[in-house]
Specification:
The complex is a heterodimer of chains A (390) and B (173). With 390 residues, chain A is mainly beta. Chain A has one domain: YVTN repeat-like/Quinoprotein amine dehydrogenase (Methylamine Dehydrogenase, Chain H, 7 Propeller). Chain A contains 2 helices and 30 strands. In chain A, the strands form 7 sheets. In chain A, strands 16, 17, 18, 19 and 20 form a 5-stranded antiparallel sheet that branches. In chain A, strands 21, 22, 23, 24 and 25 form a 5-stranded antiparallel sheet that branches. Chain A is globular and about 85 Å long. In chain B, the strands form 3 sheets. Chain B has a 3-stranded antiparallel sheet with strand order 2-5-7, with no helix packed on it. A 3-stranded antiparallel sheet of chain B has the order 3-4-8, with no helix packed on it. Chain B has a two-stranded antiparallel sheet with strand order 1-6. Chain B contains 1 helix and 8 strands. In chain B, 55% of the residues are buried. Chain B starts with a helix and ends with a strand. In chain B, strand 3 and strand 4 form a beta hairpin. Chain B has 173 residues and is mostly beta strands. Classes of the chains: A mainly beta (390), B mainly beta (173). Chains A and B meet through strand 6 and strand 12 of A and helix 1 of B.
Chain lengths: 390, 173
């Protein structure tokens, strides 16, 4: 036994000598202080995932995620913070991301400052800040319709709710506030041509405000009443194809509204559900979306229709429709449940869905409905809203 | 962290139990109700103004999401955070501006107007997250929405928890 051990030791020593002779040169000394950068234009497979940090809202953040990859190391491209239930909008033509957030000088106390923080796409670094006066910026569950860029992306419209409502207009070239436009009784900002915006009103109408070249109000007009906010409310979050916004309603109708700069034009509503599907209704937070093929998507709950209080509960499937034909073209059954989702841009759309069971996000094929992968462990806690990257 | 889905799915049973007689109430309310100072302006009758029981009987636990007053709530229950169903925890500030719901009290059979004043100035309480949403409407109806941070009119916008204050008996139509 002793002889065998000695022989083994000798052999190991010989192998080690041979290995050392064949080993590559030592690693070169590496530079420190190298910071990664991202492309100015994000790939179609990327998403911006807003973790609102519902349990500690001063730690909100937005992750840049490449959903086409398999590992966390490949999926996470970067992140920027967004304090106290902020709102964000990526403006591709400017290579910038707009983020409206709130700070206090002593954390959760002290003087309050509302700020438009402008992040550079490539560096995810702050390139400008615009302080927003009045302590009035909209602060609530994450919304896609709290910010809107107009005038060829030169201006940013910011929705305020204090709870009186208005829109602050910021010049993104000069980084200065142009002015504030009151929209009493109405809320949010929807695209309506390049020099106007629309807002949805409590009395069931749409307001459209047209602006002149200086960003001053030129005119305002209201649509006819097209819904009852008590009896047949619509969600404030439409899917959008061109100039038509498709507002889902609590009762499983979809209400198209044409918004092209003049008075908004409500169109004939139609039902999302067919025979035997009467209990289904849209529900969720980011509960709808659209793709570059002109299709519209809705998160559907199998028990929400006619049940008071279920409209935020999320759903078991995503239904995809051809809005021209008013026909469902795809059902996407989710692995467990969905609370919020976003659709990627491009001819082969993918759908990223928040799964509230484990607070992961899950990717589905937007053409076949097939489940692709679960993405989790990237630091997310409450990923309440996603947007496709631009 | 607790699973949101459990809480969301729980609502199916709750909403079936509490759905009755809430629709159609308070339809004439317009705008946002401004805290206690606005209570006399509300088209409601104060509970103590009828000469009946000054303290209507209640059942259930105020730390339970199923508690009758929480029918339209969405947030952390102050009763789990050092406060109660109608008081804020120490060192916080109650928002004077709020949204309202109308909840049915099974103990006395009446519908009550509930003011969901938020308590503000500290980080999220984190305990007893409760989402019921009955009668909730999107934020274009600020008087009936729980989707916004109601720490408005307070020195700090930092949301801590939510109360459910009885501000009157609701008129039936």
């Amino acid at each position: 036994m002793v002889r065998k051990s000695l022989l083994l030791a000798v052999l190991v020593g010989v192998c080690a000598q041979v290995g050392a002779a064949d080993s590559p040169p030592p690693l070169p000394v590496e530079p420190t202080g190298v910071i990664e950068t991202l492309p100015d234009r994000y790939p179609a497979e990327w998403f911006l995932v807003h973790d609102a940090a519902f349990f500690h809202m001063s730690d909100g953040k937005v992750y840049v995620i490449d959903a086409s990859k398999d590992t966390v190391g490949e999926q996470v491209k970067g992140m920027f913070p967004m304090n106290l239930m902020g709102s964000y909008l990526q403006v591709a033509s400017r290579g910038e991301i707009m983020s409206v957030e709130t700070f206090h000088t002593r954390g959760t106390r002290g003087d309050r400052f509302d700020v438009l923080t402008i992040w550079d796409n490539a560096n995810l670094d702050v390139v400008a800040e615009v302080e927003l006066p009045g302590k009035k910026r909209f602060m609530g569950m994450p919304q896609r319709v709290a910010l809107h860029a107009l005038n060829d992306d030169r201006w940013l419209a910011i929705f305020n709710l204090s709870p009186s409502t208005s829109v602050t207009l910021v010049d993104l070239e000069t980084r200065k506030i142009i002015g504030e436009i009151p929209i009493p009784g109405c809320s949010f900002v929807y695209a309506s041509g390049g020099m106007a915006f629309s807002s949805v009103c409590a009395d069931g109408r749409m307001l459209t405000v047209a602006l002149d070249g200086d960003g001053k109000e030129k005119s305002r007009s209201f649509s006819d009443v097209f819904f009852d906010s008590d009896e047949s409310p619509i969600f404030e979050r439409p899917a959008r194809v061109g100039n038509i916004a498709y507002f889902p309603a609590f009762d499983a109708r979809v209400q198209p509204v044409a918004m092209s700069g003049n008075a908004a034009m409500p169109m004939t509503s139609w039902s999302l559900v067919g025979e035997g599907e009467e209990n289904w209704a849209p529900a969720g937070i980011g509960l709808d979306g659209e793709d570059d093929l002109g299709r519209i998507y809705f998160l559907m709950n199998p028990e929400a229709n006619g049940v008071d209080g279920m409209h935020n509960a999320g759903g078991a499937e995503i239904w995809v429709f051809d809005p021209e034909a008013r026909r469902r073209v795809l059902r996407i059954p989710l692995q467990e449940w969905g609370l919020s989702f976003a659709v990627s841009r491009g001819e082969e759309p993918t759908v990223l869905v928040t799964n509230p069971v484990d607070m992961s996000v899950e990717l589905y094929d937007g053409l076949t409905g097939e489940f692709i992968r679960k993405i989790t462990g990237f630091g997310q806690e409450t990923p309440l809203l996603m947007m496709s990257a631009q | 962290m607790m699973s949101l889905i459990d809480r969301l799915l729980e609502k199916r049973a709750r909403s079936a139990a509490q759905h009755a007689s809430r629709r159609g109430l308070l339809k004439t309310l317009g705008g946002v109700l401004v805290g206690a100072s606005a209570v006399p302006l509300l088209p409601v009758a104060r509970a103590d103004g009828h000469g009946g029981a000054a303290h209507p009987q209640e059942t259930g636990s105020e730390t339970d999401c199923d508690y009758w007053r929480y029918c339209a709530i969405d947030g952390f229950l102050c009763s789990c955070c050092g406060g109660s169903a109608n008081t804020c925890p120490p060192g916080t500030e109650m928002s004077p501006v709020t949204w309202i719901g109308t909840c049915h009290n099974p103990a006395d059979g009446r519908n009550y107007v509930i003011s969901y004043n938020d308590c503000c100035g500290k980080p999220s309480c984190g305990a007893c997250l409760c989402q019921r949403d009955e009668g909730d409407r999107p934020p274009y109806r600020p008087d009936k929405t729980n989707d916004i941070n109601w720490c408005l009119g307070t020195s700090s916008a930092s949301y801590h928890c939510s109360t459910a204050v009885v501000v009157g008996v609701a008129f039936e139509e």
